[in-house]
Each structure stands twice: as C-alpha cells, then as structure tokens.
Design goal:
The complex is a heterohexamer, with 3 copies of chain A and 3 copies of chain B. Chain A is about 65% helix and about 0% strand. Chain A has 17 helices and no strands. Chain A is mainly alpha-helical. By secondary structure, chain B is an alpha+beta fold. In chain B, helix 1 runs antiparallel to helix 2. Chain B is globular. Classes of the chains: A mainly alpha, B alpha+beta. Chains in contact: A-B, A-C, A-D, A-E, A-F, B-C, B-D, B-E, B-F, C-D, C-E, C-F, D-E, D-F, E-F. Chains C and D meet through helix 1, helix 2, helix 3, helix 4 and helix 5 of C and helix 3, helix 9, helix 10, helix 11 and helix 12 of D. The complex binds adenosine-5'-diphosphate (3 copies). One adenosine-5'-diphosphate sits at the interface of chains F and B.
Chain lengths: ~475, ~120, ~475, ~475, ~120, ~120
C-alpha cells in the first residue's frame, strides 16, 4: 500500500477501533431531534424561575468560556510556529488544526462519555463505569439534557468546554515533537490521547474516580490537562531523539532558534487571554453572587500568577545569561498560568504571586535541565506544562485551603495523585511512540528532516519567495 | 568558462527559465535583490511623509556556462526578460565574468564537465 | 480630474446617491438625545421583572456575539493576506479595513432599514416597505428602542450584530478579486454590496420578505451571507479574468502560492472562534433555559461540522494529491462552517458531521472545478462560501426538521430560494463589474500588477527589507 | 556593578520604593482566605434576589469586558512591532509583555488603592485619601467584597478591568520611544506610570477627586488613559531625540518604514475588537434594561467613530499624498476610537460620526506636525492617543449632553481638565526621562542602535535566517 | 570593465549611496547577506543556552563600472562606509573582479555604454 | 587572488564553516539563494493543483582568498559539504573567479593583506 494511503487509512482504523462496536448511534440521534424541536419551541418561553435563571446564566457564561479556551488553539499554534524553523511551519500548523478537528470527533465519539460516566452516589459508582473509579463508560455523542427540567448547565455547553480542554492537552505535545515526527504518526497519537489517555485520567478526578475519592484537588487542570500533555510530550521527545544538528557529535548543544518570535509572543498573549476561560470557566456555575465572585477571584489569582511568572523568569534569565531573554519571559507567563491552574480557587493573592513566580523560575530550570539531559523539546513544552503542572499540583497541597472534612495529609495526596497522573501519561505514550518507532512510522528520514517537513511531508513552503510567487508572463 | 550574472524583473523569472531551457541551460542559481537603475523608484507616504521606495525588487540569476553556451545564454535571457517588443526601463542587465574553474561538490569533478 | 481624486469622489458620490434625499437625519438625532438621557438615568434602575430580565440577557449576549463576529474581520484579512503574494499585502489589508469602515457607514445610512423594514402582520406588510416583500424601507440611523418598554433586545445591539454580518458578506469578495482589482473599484463595490445588494436579499428572508413567506429556512446565513458573498466574488473573478501568469499561453495552470501560510492558518483559527458568535448568536434570544440550550446546541453542531470539514478535505486532498495539503484542510474548516450555518439549529449531531464532511469535500472539488474553468479565485472564496453556502441551503432541506405547519416540498423551497439569492448576487455584481470594466476603472495595468498593488496602488511595501529600514547615518 | 545587574536591581528598588512601608500585607491575606472559603461554599447558593442578580450580571459582564481590554495588549504589541524595523522586534515584544506583567504587580501593590480611595460623601473625603481630592490611599492588594452583602460588582472583577486600563496607558508610550530606549529604562518607566502617575490623575476623576467635583466628564478615558499615555510618550520621544538616520544632517526627513504592515493591521483589528470591552465595559453596571441598552448604545457610537476615523484619515491622506495610505487608515481607526472614548455615552449617532471623522483627520495632521517639529514618534502614538485623546475630552464639551445639575461652562471645564491631565503626564514623565538621561541610563549607544535592540539589548534575532536555523550535521 | 562587490554595514547603505551618486555612480544592485569576519558575532541565550548569533547582517553592493570609474567607486564606498574617522571592525570589504562584457536587456546594447 | 563562490545545502553551512576554519579560512559571506540543478524540485498541491516547488533553497558562500588558499578552501568545502561518502545530487557547486583587488574599508589596505 502506497505510503500516502497508509496514514489516512490508519487514522481511520484507530478511530474506528476505539469507537468500538457499542457506539449507540440511534438513541442520541433521537434525543437530538427532540432537542431540535425544543430549539423550535424556544422562543415561546417567558416564565423565569430561579432554576431556569441559574441554568441560563451558567450555560451562557460557560459557552463564552469555552470559546475563550478554544481560542487558545490559535495561541498554541502561533507559539509553536514561532519557536521552530521556518521549514517546519506548514507541518506545525497542519498538526495544530488537525489535532483540534480529530480531537473534537474522538472526544465526541469516545472521550466525553469515558471521562464523565457519572459521579458516584455516596461511594457507589453507577453501572455506566466499565471499571468503577478507573475506567468510565463507552458511548458516543452528547446525551442532551431537557431544559424543561434544568440541571446546572446545558450538556452541549459542557461538551464544548470539555472538548476544548482535551484539545489543549493534545496540542501541548505537538511542540515537543516538532521538526521530526511524521505527520501520520502525529494524527494517530492525537486520536489516542483525546480518545483514551486524557479522558481516562481525567475521569479519575473530574469524573468522580478514585483520585477524587482520595480528596485530590485540581481545580482547572494543572495536572489533568497540562501535566498529561507535558509528560506525553516528554515521552515523544525522548523516543524521537533530538533534531539533526541539535547536539554535535562531540556533545555540544547547538540551539536552533525559532524563526519568528513575533508569532510566539502573539501566541502567548492569546493564551493569556484564553486562560480567562480556562480557569474562571472551571468554576462551572456562575449564577449567584458567590459564584460570580469566585469566578472573578479566580481571574485575579490567574492574572497575578501570570505576571509573577513573567517577572521571575525574565530576571532569572537576565542574571543567568546576562541578557533579558524574551523567550524565557514568554514561557514564564505560561509557567505561571499552568502553576496556578490547579489552585486558583483556593489561594490568596500573595500566594498566587509566589506560585506564579516559582512557576516562572521552574521554566528556566527545566529548559536548562532538558538541555543537560540532551532531550530536545523545541518549544519547552515539558518545562512549561509538565514541570509547572506538577508544581501546580504540589503547590495546591502547600498553599491551598484544605477541603472541608479532609482527613490525612493533603500535601501527600496531592503529590501522590500528581505522580500517578504524570506516570500514566508518560508510560502510555512511551509505549505508543516506541510502537510506532518499531514499525518505522515515527520519524522522517534525515533527508526529509533537512529539507524540512513542509516540503517533505506536505510538499509546500510556508513562505514562498517573492521571486517564485510574483507570477510570470508567457 | 564564464560566470553570467543577470538582473531581471521578478515577473520575468518563469519566461527566462523557459527560454534558457530551450537552449539546454538548465542549471542556475536565483537570488532576490534590489536595484537602483535608470528606472525611478516609486515613492509613497509613510505615516505622513514621502519615503522614496527607490529600491526596486529584482531577481538575480547566476549561471556558470562553457564558452560555447555564453551567447545562447545571453540571447535567451534577453528573449525571456525583455518587456514587450522594445523593452522597458527596469528590464535589467547581464554581466559576463570570467571564471577559472568549476567543481562539483558531489563528485569532485572539475572544469567544463562539472558545469 | 486626476486619477487619485476620482476614487474618493466617486465613493462619496455612490454613498450620497444611495443614501438619497429622504434620509431623515433629524428624528433619529432627537431619539438619540433622549437615548443619551436614558443612558444618564441608567444607574437608578433597580427593579427587575421578567421582561426586563429577558431584554437584559438577550441584549448583552447578542452584544458579545456581535463582537465575536466583528473579530472575524481580522480572520478574513489574515486568510487573504496569507494566501496571496507578498506584493499585494498592503492592498489586501486596506480593502479589509475599508470595507468594514464603509460597510458600517453604508449599513447605518441605508442597509439596516432596507433589510429590516418590519415583518408582516398575518401576511400584510407595513407601509415602511417600498415594494412589500421585495424591497424594504429607505431611512437612516438606528431607531432606538425605549428600554422602559423592553422588546426582545436593544436596537443598538441588533445593529452591531447585523452590520457584522453585512461586513462579512462584503469581505468575502475581497479574496476572489485579490491581486488585480483597482482599490477605488473595490471601495465602490463594497459600498454597493453593504448598502443595497446584501440588505435587499437579506430582507427577503430575515426582513420577513417573500422567501420567508415561502417558508425558506436559513438560520444564520449560509445563503443570505455566504452564498451572496461567494457569488458576488465569482462575478468579480470572471469579469476581471485571472492574474497575469496564473495560466500560461498554452493553458497550463501555474498556481501562485500564498506568501505566508501561518497568517492564513491564524486567520482560520480566528474565523472558527468568531463563528461562535455567528451561529449561536443568531438564536437572537438567549434568556430562558430553552434558548440557552438552543444557543449552545448550535455551538455544538457548528463545532462538529468544522471538525468534519477539516478531516474530509484533508483526507480527500491527501488521496488526490498524495500530500496532506494544509490549505485544503484550512478551507475545509471554513467549508464545514459555512455549510452548517443555515441548519445548525435543526440537525442532529450525526447530521452535522455529515453536512460538514460534505462541505469539506466540496471545497476541494470547487477549487479543482474553478481551475478547470480557468477562473482565478486566489483564496478559493467561491468554493468555500459560494458552493458550501449553496450546499448549506440544500442540506437544510435534506436533513433539517421541517418547520411546523410547513406545506409542500421543503427541499424544493430551499433549493429554489437558494438559487434565487445566488442569482441575485451574481448578476447584480456582474453588472457592476462589467460597468466598471467598461469605463476602465476595474483592473490595474499589467505593469502595476507585476510590480504589485502595494507599490502601484498604495506606494509602499508591506515588508520593506532590513537594508532599507535599518536607518542611515549622515 | 555589572550593567546587566543594574536593571533588575533598580526595577526592584523602584518597586519596593513606591510600595512603601505601610503595605498592609496581613489583612488582605486574611480577607482572601475567607474569600477562598466563600469560593468553597459557592455552589450551595440557590436563592436569587434583585441585589444578587444585579451583582451577578454586573460582575460577569465586567469580567468579560476586562478580558477584551486585556486582549488589547496583543493589539498594541502587533501594531508597534509592525510599524518598526525588524531589528527591534524582540525588544518591542519584551517591553509589551513586561509592562503588562509589571503593571499588574505595581497596580496591585500601589496603583489600585491610590486611584480608588473611596468617593467623597457630599463633598467630604474619607480619611483614606492622603491629600483629599488629589492623592489617594497607599495600601496594597484587592480588598475583597463579601458577596453575601452584594454591592454593584465584585472587587476582583473591578481590579481586572481597572488594571487592564492601567496597562493600556503604559503600553502606549512603548511606541513613541521604540528603537532607542534602554530596556531597563523602559521597565523603570512602566513601573512608575502604572504605580503612581496614572493612578493619581485617574483618581482626580474616577476616584472622585477634584476634577470630578468640577463636573469633568471622561466616560472611558480619552483623557485619563489615552491622553496620559500619549503625552508621556511625547515626553519620552522629545528627551530621547530621533532615531539615528530619521533626520539627515541637512534636516531632511527620512521615514523608517515598518517592517511588517500585516502585523500592524492585525493589531488594529484586535484593538478595535478590544475597544468593545473598553468603552461599553465602562458602563460598569449592565443589569437592567436601561444599563443593557446604554452598554450597547455605547458600542454603537464606538463603532461609528472607528469607521468614520478610518474613512476620513484615508481620504485625507489620499488627497494629501495622492496615495491611499494604509498606515493612515489604520491609525485613523484608532484616532476615531480614542476620540469617542470620553463621550460614547452622551453623543448622538451623527455626532459620533463627526467626532470620529475629526479624530481621523487629526491623526494625519498630528503625524505631519511631529515630522515638522522633528520629533520622532515611530508609531504615531501622540497623534493617535495624545492629540485625539485631547480632542475626545474637548468634543465631550462640544457635543456631549451637559450633566444634570451642572453649573457654568461645560466646555470650559472639559478643556481645563484635559489640559491639567495632559500637563501632569507630560511634565512628570519629562522629569523622569531627563533624570534617566542625566545618569546615562536612557538611550543605547549609536552602535547598539545600529545593530538593533534585539541583538544589543536581548542578544537574539526575531527572525533568524533559514540558513542559520536550518540545523547542521556533524 | 570591472565588477565591484562591496560588503558594508546595513546602516551605511544610505551614506554609501549618497557618496556614490556624487561620483555619478547611480546604478547598483543591493543584496542582503550575512558575514563572518574578524568582528565577533554577538551571542544570546535561546530557551536557556547560548546560541552564537555569529552571522552578522550585512549588505552587499554589486556595481559594474568602466575602468575610469573603478577608483572613484572604491573611494566613495570607503568614504560612505567607514564608521567614524578610523573605522570599525565590521565595516567590511570591497572586491574588484574583472568583467568581460555587459549587456542591457532592454536595448541589447553591449560593452561600456551598456553599463 | 580568487573569489570563490560555493552553493551548498542549507543544512551543511555549519559543517562547511567548521571545515574552513580548520584551514584558517575564517572570513566569508553567506547569502540565501535558490537553485535549479539536476536535483528535481519537490512538487506539492496548492489550492488543488500541483505547483512545482522546483526552486530549492540553497546557501551561497562567497570567499575571497589568496592563491595559496584556493585549493585548501575547495577541499574544505567539499569535505564539509558532501552528503555521506559519495555525495548526493543537490550537494552543489563551487565556482572560482579571478579577482583583481581587495580593499578593507576600515583601513583602506589593499591587495592580499586585506583579504
Ligand atoms: N552598472 C550596474 N551595476 C550593477 N547593477 C546594475 C547596473 N546597471 C543596472 N543594474 C541593475 O539592473 C537593474 C535594472 O537596471 P535598469 O534601470 O533597467 O537599467 P537601464 O535603465 O540601463 O535599463 C537595476 O535595478 C540594477 O539592479
Ligand atoms: N575574505 C573574505 N571573503 C568574503 N567575505 C569577506 C571576507 N572578508 C570579509 N568579508 C565580509 O566582510 C564583512 C566585514 O568583515 P570585517 O570583519 O570587517 O573584516 P575586517 O575585520 O578585516 O575589517 C564580513 O562580515 C564578511 O561578510
Ligand atoms: N551551472 C550552474 N550555474 C549556476 N548554478 C549552478 C550551476 N550548477 C549547479 N548550480 C547550483 O548548484 C545547486 C546544486 O546543483 P546540483 O543539482 O547538485 O548539481 P549536480 O546535479 O551537478 O550536483 C543548484 O541548485 C544550483 O543552485
């Protein structure tokens, strides 16, 4: 079978495979048709009680926050493009567009139900769980709620918000494996992460699984989203090995500078803005003064951590390298944001400054550490999302208010849970990447890598020269 | 052996290439450059004052050829590079430089067969 | 009269012309002053009844959606810039900024009233209509509602949302005519489209005109916005003819690659995000569980169609060209979004995947078709907005729930109505462009085109070389 | 002490200095812990009364508007990058990221309390004011409100909205001093502006100070934000002097074109969108029909002014320079937006068109004026923010409805107040920049300027060439 | 006829152009290039390690001139291109290459009048 | 004195530089260029049709050297620029042009010591 048929086929296979036989297409479709009817009827409604009001506000604000988180996809794409060579731009953009598209479909068909099979009633899990507390349900599509009996918010809004998180976890890896992984291999990876790996560990806490039972706290996903993405990326970077020329035969480190730092900075600004959907949106309920207050208080701690992260990373880089390194300041912003994500709801303003500042410093440290270990992570995804994600989980245990009625060592639970999630992401992905490598589907040839993935994988340049594109007369 | 340098209009690259391949000149190197010549540069306002955009985008061709190919190459460039019948200011120039030697990196061949 | 005076003058003439004599400046101005007074009083209000609550929520969410749709202007600009030669960048940006600015003014002075003259009461049209059911009212400015007697939402919010749609229709054409149309010609075109052409066909459905009487459904404008823009652009591309060098004398197709695909991809991400204002916002009323649900359900179907469009376009291009073509995937996203726009409120999740996937495939097919026909549409605006817009209208008839109490063939009505709107946009614009061509005001000279519109039309480069801009000592 | 240590140290010193001893860390920290508790409790709330409803809506919409205003930071960065030489890109981005980060921290520790010490009760100022009516309180952190006794909106939302404004004022200056100011000097400046200068003049009106007593009106900050930034920048441009090569020895003006106008245009689109948070958000209360109406009416006048500004600037430039200058149209959009900012709540639709159009024309005039005076303002920050800001303040007096119960000449008060604020910003910053110049910390050496601030200040290129970044085999 | 190649500092383009036009050398071609020379490249951190930014941005001028113009051209470039009185490392070099012929594409003229 | 022009693969710049410095050739000028040669250009779809991306990115080195350095320079470029043992199409060419003179802008020195 010709090479270029391999990839689409395999992707479809993977997709079909994990969707599985028990994909109950019928029922949801019905549900949706009723739903559509509801949509029709919509305009009539004119009576508003408290339940309806709460449902309305929660649903609408959650929708807006979902849009903000989806916007982060643009930010991730720009950061990765900017911090890599021009010759890999098309490939990076293709990965970022397609992991979102594939992520949406896989999360719809598999991930969503797997991650939210239903919380346990006083310790007893609903039958929907395949392995109670560890593996959720296998079913497809969004089961639609009936606004006539309003819950807390609409299920479509919930899906949009959650799928945006899944896409975030997936896209983090793209940066770590940039410049050398086959496009088809990346598609397969992203299908697996959004379809299985992320939802399963997600269910352990947010789905009401065993980590939740332990009392583990991860408000918006320092661990469940960023640590997962960061460690999956680390596995990829290790299995792939460094880009050609990144380290010389005699072991010297030869940095490969990004080709457009303006794109990278734009991306960070977009991510900062998107994070106001990521963290405050995770309050999930907004109606009522207490919730509105909490939502914006979370926005405050998030902002302080981002600012502290930028300052600490810049100053540290300035002292270490005697130059104020912009790329460090940019990653410092992200490090601060990742670190506060788990605890933005339960720390003070001072504490959020401290958490963010340490996050910024960890980014610098992590970059240096990877370089020492000769692990090539082109955008520094592990220092930012992996390391700061772990720090976010731990910081929750150190600074965060202990949940009411919690017994035992909160810090202990935070550390152990964070470790488990990081290990889960790292080893499952290590297996995948080793498998792809074994069958020779993981990395492009040295010639292709030299020419750049744009030409060798996609057959086009991102920035054709004027001379070529100026057009000709005949 | 000669080293031919030609400066042409960007839009003319395709037609010059076509003309060159007709005379079996298939190897060449292209550089983007900017030129001052008789052709006046366009001027435009920038934040309110005229900035003379007097450097015009051009394309430079570098072609190493054996003696017998020099004239055909020149003719081909003129044929493909001239605007309309009697040409237009800005069509550019061809410079012919002597060349002592040519080496093919791949094989190490030297001299005319390496061209 | 010197050339450069021609354009501003003519634009003003066109403007003045269509604004017409009966532009009742006075009354609205009064209204506004009262309004301002209301603004003063604002802060006092403290009693909230259901009507007030509904008005507040609807108005605020509609405003947010309007902002999202306006943000799409940035997306359109980036996509067009990225997919064209560097030498036309300034011109493209100028077109995109000015069609918004001119669009706002023309829609304020003419379009808005023309498009929304008031819906008929049981089949009888208010006198405001110039030609009942076909041509609306000629009046200017936003007639302000009195929040003391709250309707469904505020008229300023309504205007902002609607003008953003008008600007969308206008800017679509920019991509089809890029690289060769005179800047002044484009200004005249955009004034006409946003002032007359778009509002008139818009009134046929959304203004309560004859298509609405027929039971035609176009929820958010696959037909009324995107098909109109797409076919207007097609007319432009045909009348202008291809860019120099796009097709060789012996009929070979010589693609002119875009100069910055990163910009194009950023634009698509922005458009995707903006579409969450475009479709969900078109629910128009958000207060009440049913509306909140509908709004987010629409967001869900929109997301699924975009994802499906990306996947189908990428896979199809991969199979056809043996390379995963990013530009196709990007346009596939847009194709899916355009296709779902008409029916996002009345199809199931599965159906939205199908509609989006077909949209993505149509983009690829449309691009190939135009190339066969030697019609030069630099960004593929017709395949994306024209073809997928038509598909969106038709798909509504195929998959969409038939409106309650609808008699006859829903599919038939959808097809016929879509055809009428497409024809309207195509032929009116064909006439305009032929007219401009006749008086030699349409296309720049070959020399100007070769040099690039940036230099020849605007006298500046988008990317001056470092050597030039590095500054000099004297 | 080595040069590169100087900057971080000094920045910290300045910071520490203005934070001062009486930074009551303790109490707020307590408050926050309670707050966190509240966050815990949040989910229980289910009773909604009018006060609670008002607090919820106001808080949530204000939060969304704050996010939009923060997004403007990306816009300012892109505009400045695009309109300057490639060799200063890293420096510009670093300034824009760090003035936000430092601004957040300084405004938290000093500015916020200084600007909002509490409004006077019938003419009597609370003791919190250090100099009643002129200088506010010195205290740190956000004192958190108790949602159980809801005020108008949550204090964290208020802080986020206000800090975004402070960051806007700060970042405006960046454009005026681009290409020649030391990075460390810029950090010191931005700490001072967001910590002291901006909050003090802000308190005069929005904090309830003496200008407010006079009846001065500045709805969203044409004067308090944009004039302050514009005139601070003017001071910087004057003290620094022009960039090398900007004016020849024989006094000829040699424009240094921006290196990427596509970035500049993207930035303007982002700013336009962000302004929908800036102006409508300044309504501060949104709940209730009257407020919702006012919010969107403000969005309408804002839109009209932006459009009119673009048209007038383009046409004027076209007539003056015989070319439709995009950079003028772009700055015209901003000029219109700045001009309407002070009066968007109290002018009619026609008036907003007039105010915007004059704003656009003033931008062109201002650019020419600065060039005549040989003041080098690379991005035209003074014409846009300084001049149009002043025009906004004056226009309020000309067109705006006179506040109820206002005595005397409204126009007079507007002019005088605007003058006072402009002078305050100009002279305080003049002093600062002269001081830095005196100690030789203001401007880089000619060699460094020639090489570009990216290399000389940050040791890296923004756009490393492919040849360099292509990677090497050893 | 000679083909003069000069590598100068980017910031010096304007002053060199001015100096050249004084000696009536008005036609030239400009290329952006990067150079290694005695002048050390600046180094800067990238994601935490020093990347030697050792290629310095330079501007290359190519000027085809007739014999009598060679010396004036060289002098003009030195006059316009030298930093301060005694120059600075990085100011660059001038290379003079022999040229056999020159052709104007527009007219087909050859030799010295085509220059 | 000779003026050596070498067209190499972008990825080879570092190794060629290393090889050159071994033979004490430390000054050179680098230009980005595109080339046609025997190596076929890759082709890719653009908005649905094949656009032959037949111009390949290359790097051009310009090195002015004294006679005795010519051969070492050529050998160094071949050593550093050839892909693997027997090289690959696309590895490029070296062109050796005669040079009449060389002037150092900074000092005004001329001839071989200026190189
Ligand atoms: N003597 C020269 N030396 C170097 N480049 C030249 C020379 N003459 C012309 N050129 C290059 O050729 C381009 C076209 O020159 P052009 O203005 O057409 O010359 P002419 O007016 O003689 O036809 C110029 O922009 C410049 O780049
Ligand atoms: N021998 C050479 N061959 C090619 N280019 C050279 C040579 N010598 C200098 N250059 C170019 O001139 C630029 C300036 O050289 P520079 O460091 O000033 O030399 P010097 O130290 O002798 O003045 C270098 O960056 C390089 O681009
Ligand atoms: N005769 C020539 N004139 C100018 N440039 C050439 C010539 N031959 C080769 N080149 C340049 O060298 C590059 C590599 O050529 P290549 O295809 O490797 O030649 P070969 O197949 O002989 O090894 C080409 O892309 C082109 O830029």
């Amino acid at each position: 079978m010709v090479q270029w048929l391999r990839a689409p086929m395999l992707t479809c296979l993977v997709l079909a495979g994990i969707v599985g036989v028990n994909m109950m297409m019928a029922s949801p479709t019905f549900a949706q048709d009723d739903a559509a009817a509801v949509v029709e009827a919509a305009v009539e409604t004119v009576e508003y009680n408290d339940a309806d009001y709460q449902y309305t506000i929660n649903t609408l604000i959650m929708f807006i926050c979902a849009v903000l988180v989806l916007f982060m996809q643009a930010g991730f794409a720009m950061v990765e493009v900017g911090l890599n060579s021009a010759k890999n731009t098309i490939n990076i953009l293709a990965k970022n567009v397609m992991d979102l598209a594939i992520g949406v479909i896989l999360y719809l068909l598999v991930g969503f139900a797997l991650m939210y099979p239903g919380a346990p009633e006083d310790g007893v899990y609903p039958d929907s769980w395949v392995m109670p507390g560890y593996v959720g349900a296998f079913s497809s599509f969004v089961t639609l709620d009936d606004p006539a009996e309003p819950g807390s918010y609409s299920s479509p809004a919930d899906f949009l918000f959650q799928v945006a998180f899944a896409a975030t976890a997936a896209t983090i890896v793209s940066g770590s494996v940039a410049g050398r992984m086959k496009f088809s291999a990346y598609l397969i990876y992203s299908a697996l992460l959004t379809g299985l790996i992320y939802p399963i560990s997600g269910s352990w806490k947010w789905g009401g699984g065993f980590l939740n039972e332990w009392g583990f706290q991860d408000f918006a996903g320092s661990v469940l989203v960023h640590t997962v993405g960061g460690f999956a990326g680390l596995a990829g970077a290790i299995v792939l090995g460094p880009r050609i020329g990144r380290y010389t035969s005699d072991g010297r480190s030869v940095p490969i500078p990004g080709h457009n730092i303006a794109f990278a900075a734009l991306g960070v600004f977009i991510l900062w803005v998107g994070w106001y959907g990521f963290n405050p949106g995770s309050q999930l309920t907004y109606a009522g003064g207490a919730n509105a207050f909490a939502t914006t208080y979370i926005g405050l701690t998030t902002t302080l951590a981002a600012a502290a992260g930028a300052v600490s990373a810049l100053v540290l880089a300035w002292v270490l390298f005697s130059k104020p390194d912009l790329t460090m300041a940019l990653n410092g912003v992200l490090g601060g944001l990742v670190a506060i994500t788990a605890n933005c709801d339960r720390v003070s303003q001072v504490e959020s400054l401290i958490i963010g500042a340490i996050g910024g410093a960890l980014v610098v440290a992590g970059v240096i550490l990877l370089d020492k270990l000769k692990i090539d992570d082109p955008v520094g995804a592990w220092p930012v999302h992996g390391l700061c994600g772990v720090w976010g989980g731990v910081a929750t245990g150190i600074f965060g208010d202990v949940p009411d009625g919690f017994e035992g060592s909160f810090l202990g639970v935070q550390c152990l849970s964070t470790l488990i999630v990081a290990a889960w992401a790292f080893f499952t992905m290590l297996a995948l990447f080793l498998g792809l490598k074994a069958v020779g589907m993981l990395r492009v040839s040295p010639e292709e890598e030299q020419a750049g993935l744009d030409i060798s994988e996609h057959g086009m340049h991102a920035y054709p020269s004027d001379a070529v594109s100026a057009g000709a007369i005949h | 052996m000669k080293f031919v340098i030609a400066i042409i209009q960007p839009g003319k690259l395709e037609s010059v290439k076509a003309a060159l391949s007709k005379v079996e000149v298939v190897r060449l190197t292209v550089l983007e450059c900017q030129g001052f010549g008789r052709q006046k540069g366009k001027t435009g306002p920038h934040l309110g004052h005229d900035s003379s955009v007097n450097l015009l985008r051009k394309v430079q061709l570098q072609i190493a050829v054996n003696e017998e190919f020099v004239q055909p190459t020149i003719d081909a460039i003129i044929a493909g590079g001239r605007s309309g019948e009697e040409g237009r200011i800005g069509d550019g120039k061809i410079f012919v430089l002597p060349m002592d030697d040519c080496i093919r990196i791949r094989t190490g061949e030297t001299g005319s067969e390496a061209i």
